[in-house]
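Recap for those who missed Tuesday's class. We walked through two folding examples back to back. For each one, the amino acid string is listed first and its predicted structure tokens come directly after. Nothing is annotated here on purpose, so try labeling regions yourself before you check the end of the notes.
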Amino acid sequence: MKLSIVIVNYNVRYFLEQCLLSVEKALYGVSGEVFVVDNHSTDDSMPYLKGKFPWVRYIENDENIGFSRANNQALREARGEYVLLLNPDTFIGERTLRECIDFMDKNPQAGMCGVGMLRIDGSFAPESRRGVPTPFVAFCKMSGLGSLFPKSRLFGRYYMQYLNKLSINPIEIVSGAFMFIRKSALDKVGLLDEAFFMYGEDIDLSYRVLKAGYQNYYIPTQILHYKGESTQKDSLKYVNAFHKAMVIFFKKHFTQYSGIYSAFITLTIVMKGAMTYLMHKTRAWSHKKDEMERLKFLIVSDGQNLDDMKNIAEKHQLRYDVFHSRLGDIPSTDVLYRDYDYIVFDTSRYPYSSILEFFRHDESNRRRPFIATYIPSNKSIMTFCGALN
């Protein structure tokens, strides 16, 4: 078997449904298996998904055992030459898995690879490429030096923004949202460290793979990462979990540094986490479901499923326009970026790869609309806030 895919779910059934739909398309012609590990969801994820995706192997936990332990449950059963750890709040392009497999097949020294992750507005997510957060690298990030000099190989190493995001490049840390791993490398270094409940386990595993003599890589194929829907980043639990994870990482790998320096790193992590929480809280408030009527949608349709999409929009009292297209046609960026908050694509008519390819092309700093998708299987429009149905 070529590939084993592991997805850990916690109360995001509609996001996971879209993720699995994209995975099913991307697996066409690939010998693979898919595991969904459910951490005691309370949104009826399992009965809902099992009927729709009977080919998935499900592992159901009777409590939330954390990201690392849940992934390890499936990894112990995985039979693939490669393993992909994938977040449920993502969707991938139809060519994504093949591109990763082809790259890893041709580069036996590669232990892991990550991809270009797009945010919900189609912009490039800097965490797609990261350096090992040594105390100096972490200091540069937390102190703001990395933001002041993002292209500097000295100060900007955390996000490695000096690398061309359209080219294959060696990197150090692969994001846990899409972590493509050579199984033999994983067997050599061991599974995810279960001391990490959530966050930090990807940094730790990436670092251990590097120390084992492999190289990690970034390849420029795209996925969308809603970022936060699977982990509830609008709660203080995120700040606390991230803080604890980084403390565990420093104690594990950088014990030689003084307690004073470690305390400073801890303090800056807490401060940065609090700022991130406040910024996310403000942005999330403006896109709550009950605020959607303030936003404007553009529905891109060739006619099929148009009535269903319009019915959803009218049910939720959304302001919307329709771009009437022939299959394969999409509006120009001038139309898209005029005054719309969301652009809705019917995923039964437009491939995920085409949606990703379109949104990633605009590199300007102008206001960007959010990506939305229509999912015919549940007759819903997927937005940053979840499903409208």
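Example two. Treat it independently of the first, because the proteins are unrelated.
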Amino acid sequence: MASLCFLGAVQQVTGSCHLLETDTGVRVLLDCGLYQGRRADAEHNRAAFAFDPKTLDAVVLSHAHLDHSGLLPRLVAAGFRGRIHVTDATSELLSLILLDAAHLQEKDAEWENRWRARIGKPPIQPLYTRADTERMLERRSPHAYGVTFEAAPGVRVTFHDAGHILGSAIVAVQVGDGAGSRRLVFSGDLGNENSPLMRPPAIIEEADTLLLESTYGDRDHRDQQATIEELADVLAQADREGGNVLIPSFAVGRTQDLIYHLGRLYRAGRVPQQAVFLDSPMAIGANAIYSRFYQQLDPVDLAALKGSKPHVEAWLPILRTTPTPEESMAINRFKSGVIIIAGSGMCTGGRILHHFKHNLWRRECHLVIAGFQASGTLGRAIVDGARSVKLLHQRIAVKARVHTLGGFSAHAGQSQLIDWVANFHVPPALYLVHGEREKMVALQEALQRRLGLATNIPEPGQRIEL
């Protein structure tokens, strides 16, 4: 009988990874994500895989975010030689995201080794290199939504739109043929139906086993229109007080949503700032990919931009992109009157840290947290009320006004998750993944209460039969 082993994003949000094994010995990996947030996660990323990469027949990837894809270059460096099955848009986003991640890995190792040399410690190697990533990218096999393909012998896969980010997929897997076949559905990250640009998650009605994400399993998101009103109020307050607005943002998904919302507010005369800086080379690259795949976006939302061209950067006329370090540093000349969108989304690195250095200690400035902040991240510490934070080798006071706008999440909230599960004709064996344990427990109780559905919370390394 086929089996599934839970190897990552088990009672936590990052590191998505699940190993499917058939009774004929075929092995397919669902996701191969990076662990993010805590110091221990860096060690986990360097640990040996829980399987021999050489024995894998294929990888099936739900979407391009690093917590789902970020260890793929290391997998190939360790000997994986199969195909990596992705949607067509994910294929392009992977190149952008993972080459950037490899560059950061190399730079971080270079900096660390300078410090190690001074104190006589041996050098370290980057987690993976650009060369590893380029070899990995050669193994991509892109597929359209709704088209069934054989990922490996006896394993047939169909991607359905998950509505989370461009190219994100619900992964439907059929293992075996005929009466003995089993159907596994992996939700990936399900989108928030109220988010702009993405279409609603596809409805799936049949599964024997379901892996369901639970990132926001404990609550529903705030009404999005109320969140947009709060954003407009923050912009007006920052303008009155003479400060800047900082928005740490994920380069893929959240940034495009923010540009869309700001574009609509601008057209309504509700953005008093003189400029919006997009200070993220990766987000600028993601904008170009979103523009190429604009036909996969929600046409109703695009129509609300009143005839704007499909290109993302045309949605917001006062948007300025700053791809080079010199252009990024020049933003610091503006002491007031600008909005700065920069990575990383959880404030764990990237250009947002430099803007924190120049703005976070100023009472007249405003910090907008518009995305999930995992435990152990700098963003989470700020949201939890830290009065000062250490960044770029110095301690900075947190005096800027901090606003957490939960309505911008690209993940489904609790009620949306339950409504999506209710579409299955026969309740599947349901396992919760990709969520902190307390969120899983809350969703488990809500599924039992609303649908009478028993739910499982797997343990790391647990194996189940399908």
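Answers for example two:
The chain is about 30% helix and 20% strand.
The mean pLDDT is 94.
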